[in-house]
Description:
The protein has 323 residues and is an alpha/beta fold. It has helices at residues 15-30, 42-49, 59-68, 86-101, 118-128, 138-146, 186-198, 210-218, 231-239, 249-258, 269-278, 289-298, 304-316, and strands spanning 3-10, 34-39, 52-55, 71-74, 77-80, 105-113, 132-135, 152-153, 173-177, 202-207, 224-227, 243-246, 262-265, 282-283. Strands 1, 2, 3, 4, 5, 6, 7 and 8 form an eight-stranded parallel sheet that branches. It has a six-stranded parallel sheet with strand order 11-10-9-12-13-14, with helices on both faces. Helix 6 (138-146) links the parallel strand 7 and strand 8. Helix 7 (186-198) packs across helix 12 and helix 10 (249-258) packs parallel to helix 11 (269-278). The longest helix is centred in the first third of the chain and has 16 residues, at 15-30. The N and C termini lie close together (10 Å).
Amino acid sequence: MSRVAVSGYYGFGNTGDEAIALAISRELRAQGHAPLLLSNTPAETARLYGCESAARMKPAALLGALLRSQVLLSGGGGLLQDKTSARSMAYYLGVISLARRLGKRVVIFNQSIGPLSEEGGAKVARALRGLRVVVRDRGSLETLERLGVTAELGGDPALLLAPTPGLTRDENTVVVAPRGDVQAALPALHGTVAALRSGGRRVVALSFMPSHDDEAARGLGADEVVSTQDPQVALDLIAQSGFVIGVRLHAVILAAAAGVPFAGVAYDPKVEGFCRDAGAPTHSVTPDTWTLSAQALARSAPDWEAVTAMKERARQSFVGLGK
């Protein structure tokens, strides 16, 4: 059995990233590996996922975790971008560099790459050359191709999660998952919620990151607000609905995992990339209320064959990780 360290945005109360952590830890164990998650709250992460965890920002703990591991997975998530934080990208590249210096096998695992500045792109290209690189959308493949980095197409690990058995779906329920920091989308989402309720739909506002999204979720005028950091709770809520509108990327990813139609509001290229690959509707950060409402009322479906292929790529990306 090999120990696999996993570097990502874990332990910060973001349900989407916790869904990735849950899926990766489960799948690694199923493949006979021992996951070690680098986390902001290692004791809580170890309790939640039943695996080893180490403090991601404490140098001695990070070094010890890498020394005890045979492999480093960098990802999943959208870690390698410098649009919002060059400092964050520097951290993830630093972990990759340290693992390489220690002689560990490094895999860039089901990430979205970018947006990147010219300087950031050069840093990523240098750091990734010679590694196995798996990305979760075709847009990231194209970004890396422009940087001269060879990569393969995988899929977001959260696609491998399954709802709790025995749940009942109510096709008249629509889940809307905003982002508190994407204020431009809120007026259109509020109008969409009003239109859906007028059309006889029950609307649930889902807060994926309570510290950031609760206020936005409460302001949508939905029938119910659900705030959670538990990916299984979010997945089960989505699985019981008939349609999902997601600004949060993992709202639409979990909808795909549960077989529920969805539309994305693309505040970031990773949302557009996922929806495009899945054949699902995607909108700008100021979506047209009428169009978005009509899609939700009609339960406009993605390309389910494409979604099935994405799940299979996600599953296959775990093969051979411990070698």
